[in-house]
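Look at one record.

>
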Amino acid sequence: MKSMVRELSDDQIQQIRRGTEDILENVGFRVQHKGLRERCQAVGAVVDETRENVRISPALLHELLGQVPPSYKIADLAGNKRIVGSSGPDNYHAIVTDPWIIDYETQRPRHPTLAD
């Protein structure tokens, strides 16, 4: 069976990066935690307190990304340690699962339930 996986071209990667920068700068994202919005504003983000919205410029995005380490260690409850972001045969990447959903009827965030 032929593999369906193919790498993105440099142009495609740049298109995704430009689109991401545009969304972060012009649309932004919702931050419900007031203290976190204050921290965002302190480093130069544009914060709309009424909408709980944060927007960041491409320059600020690149500055913040430059502070992220290329890899870091994690451990599970049994103490097994892994390096996230490393290259090699044991290559792990972190994903974030948002513990909130937007309720269809109320249009407000809430924790998911088994009924979902």
Remarks:
- The two ends are 36 Å apart (CA to CA).
